[in-house]
Design goal:
29 helices, 51% helix, 14 strands, 8% strand, 8-stranded mixed sheet, alpha/beta
């Protein structure tokens, strides 16, 4: 429904119109001017905020144009009630507003035409279109952004001038205001006209598609990551981009929705967004041998129907959720899972996916997570392996949409967990990193988060005053200075103002600068290192925001406490001790039976009384009875450490590409041998097989 400020602005605007009518009938110029100012300002505020309420007003027939028209009609009523209906300024006002609305049609048509012509059939990143076709610069953003609102607000000069004329009983101000409004309206239309003719028009669809095909013919992609989904699902493709960058074959990312492209993370991999199914099938993808799918969606059928490539479901994370054993997965040539657990999941679900079609490839995304080093047995007087104060990460998940207390430990166990950790003896450091959605649904969860935050901050203040803990202020000051330097350089590299470009300009210009990309990656790694050195290694911290990232927190922690979520599955890659809270109190045995990822965890009740077992494992590896279970569970869920996951992934891609090539050569041999069915198929599929697929089937489904 919008924020409180937006609701207040909408209420003021809607109440302002009855006040305008009363002021016009009384008549009172001053009351009318005040009410008009409120409606103008409230309207502008809602549009500037992009408020959801603006669209709602249109649904109840109180849209933008109607609101401006009513205000203008009420102004004419005010002039009539003030006995100005026989004056020239009255007729001038009527003529002005009629002409002004006459300008709305060409203005709206020009804006729509410019936007449509600049929307290309495909949008790209890291694809060299600039050397192949001429894509002109877009009009200045100010001309097209919120254009209807800006055009309508040009009536302000006329309204102010007419009100001044009514107050002073003098037509000069009104005439000047009318002239300014009409002149600005005409000027706005004239400024837009050059962008619909001549060299300022982008190339037509056929020219753009031909340029993309020419690039594909030269690049010859071999492995495609295909993705379709909503804006909220962009993370599912983003998580695979780094893996695509490390492929030994030539990679390409194919997207189907423009909103996904707008939310795509920076990458060096070429990206082509093709919203139209026919356009996709007409792209020259004849060199592609392996297609990877991160989600099961209807639009997958548009590429799945191509027989010259092998199709693989890679998903967006292994878990015990039903989505991990979707029956649709049997449509693919292979299904790749992280470890044996994924294979067993499909066997138990019995959804038609054959065991021989499942390949275990690990999880390349977990490569940044550092494994627990081999530690000598025996107690270490409470110190970590490198002599610092041990760190325990508390990373609860959020409350979920159903507000079930079992979703998150924060509600019933959070305070108990943190109190026990900050009072631990020997001491440990606590890092509290809540889920970014915490408190967005439940007020109780938001309150619990505030209480836990207060506990951590209070404990940090007490530790800062504790003489047992020393601080190297010079080293920390140097680290903070380094952070400032790095952040300044990152701002220079990333603050390019690209958000002001339209899609056509971005497709023309967005070819990655590899040196810049590598420097950004290096600086972010340096930032992370300097961040942890900028404060004492014994200091309790509350960590919110995007940086430092969750995996960075894993790497500086010696153990973790969390809830049932992907956080636990990812942390298992570190091999470090972890605890999971049974917030719903279903019991240890049932909890472990229902959740594979907790089978090597210390299971906590809401009282957190079992936390000592986790702390003992951190302080003394010999007091860690679950170490072997964790290693076994890690191999079961994520596969072996050697060969590395990316090596397994590349090997699987290469093996499947060979199968695709063998199939294609077999088809060619059949045709050469005069096989009638193969020859008939060849006639149906002339030339490039993807184009042929589009010709062979007239309709697109899925």
């Amino acid at each position: 429904m919008g924020s409180a400020a937006e609701l207040a602005a909408a209420a003021l605007m809607m109440l302002g119109f009855p006040v305008l009518m009363v002021a016009a009938l009384v008549p009172s110029v001053y009351a009318f001017a005040a009410a008009a100012a409120v409606t103008y300002l409230a309207d502008h505020y809602l549009h500037r905020k992009g408020s959801y309420l603006v669209n709602r007003l249109s649904k109840v027939r109180a849209g933008l144009s109607i609101r401006f028209l009513i205000r203008q009609l009420l102004l004419i009523l005010l002039l009539a009630r003030m006995s100005l209906s026989d004056d020239l300024v009255f007729y001038g006002a009527i003529a002005c507003f009629i002409a002004f609305y006459g300008l709305q049609a060409p203005h709206g048509a020009l804006v729509t035409l410019i936007r449509n012509r600049r929307r290309m059939p495909v949008a790209t990143r890291n694809v060299d279109l600039k050397s192949r076709i001429r894509i002109p610069d877009a009009p200045p953003r100010g001309l097209l952004d919120r254009s209807a609102e800006k055009m309508l607000h040009l009536d302000l000069s006329a309204v102010v001038g007419l009100l001044v004329s009514a107050m002073m009983d003098n037509a000069v101000a009104g005439s000047v205001g009318i002239g300014i409004t009409l002149a600005l309206g005409c000027l706005y239309v004239l400024v837009l006209m050059p962008y619909v003719r001549g060299r300022k028009i982008p190339p037509d669809h056929d020219t753009v598609l031909a340029a993309v095909d020419d690039w594909l013919g030269r690049y010859k992609p071999e492995t495609v990551l295909y993705f379709s989904g909503s804006k909220d699902s962009a993370y599912q493709v983003n998580m695979w981009l780094e893996t695509m960058e490390q492929l030994e074959s030539r990679p390409l990312v194919l997207l189907r929705e423009r909103v996904i492209l707008q939310n795509l993370a920076p990458t060096t991999v070429p990206v082509i967004c093709v919203p139209g199914g026919v356009h996709l099938m007409n792209l020259d993808l004849s060199t592609v041998r392996v297609a990877l799918y991160a989600a099961n969606v209807g639009k997958n059928i548009h590429l799945l129907r191509v027989p010259t490539m092998k199709h693989v479901f890679i998903g967006h994370g292994d878990s015990d959720k039903l989505a991990s054993v979707n029956p649709f997965s049997k449509a693919y040539d292979e299904v790749w899972t992280a470890g044996r657990a994924g294979r067993d999941r499909y066997a138990l679900a019995d959804v038609g996916v054959r065991d021989e079609d499942i390949v275990e490839v690990g999880r390349p995304q977990l490569a940044p997570i550092q494994s627990r080093p081999d530690l000598p047995a025996g107690p270490r007087d409470g110190a970590a392996a490198d002599g610092r104060c041990p760190t325990v990460l508390y990373a609860p998940t959020w409350e979920g949409w159903d507000d079930n207390p079992g979703n998150t430990s924060l509600l019933l166990a959070g305070e108990n967990i943190v109190k026990k950790l900050v009072k631990a003896d020997p001491p440990v450091r606590v890092l509290y990193k809540p889920h970014p959605f915490t408190g967005t649904v439940s007020a109780a969860a938001a309150a619990a988060h505030r209480r836990v935050t207060a506990l951590v901050e209070k404990a940090a203040a007490q530790r800062a005053a504790d003489a047992r803990f020393t601080t190297d202020t010079a080293a920390q000051a140097a680290a903070r200075a380094e952070l400032t330097r790095i952040e300044s350089r990152l701002a220079e590299l990333t603050g390019t103002g690209d958000e002001k470009r339209d899609e056509a300009e971005a497709s023309r210009d967005d070819v990655v600068d590899l040196k810049k990309h590598e420097e950004i990656a290096r600086l972010r790694a340096e930032w992370n290192d300097a961040h942890w050195r900028s404060f004492p290694d014994h200091e309790h911290r509350v960590i919110t925001g995007a940086e430092p990232r969750l995996y960075d927190c894993f790497n500086v922690s010696d153990a973790m406490v969390s809830d049932i979520s992907s956080v636990v599955s990812d942390f298992i890659a570190s091999g470090k001790p972890y605890a999971v809270t049974d917030s719903a109190e279903v019991g240890v045995e049932e909890f472990k039976r229902a959740n594979t990822a907790v089978r090597a965890a210390v299971i906590l009740s809401n009282s957190a009384k079992e936390l000592d077992a986790l702390l003992d494992a951190v302080r003394d590896p010999s007091a860690d009875p679950l170490a072997g279970d964790r290693d076994e569970l890690k191999r079961y869920l994520l596969g072996p450490d050697e060969p590395t996951s990316i090596e397994q992934f590349n090997a699987a891609v290469a093996a499947l590409a060979r199968k695709a090539e063998t199939r294609n050569l077999g088809q060619e041999a059949l045709i050469a041998a005069g096989d009638p069915e193969a020859a008939e198929l060849a006639e149906l599929l002339p030339g490039d097989p993807v184009k042929a697929a589009g010709e062979a089937e007239g309709t697109i489904t899925g």
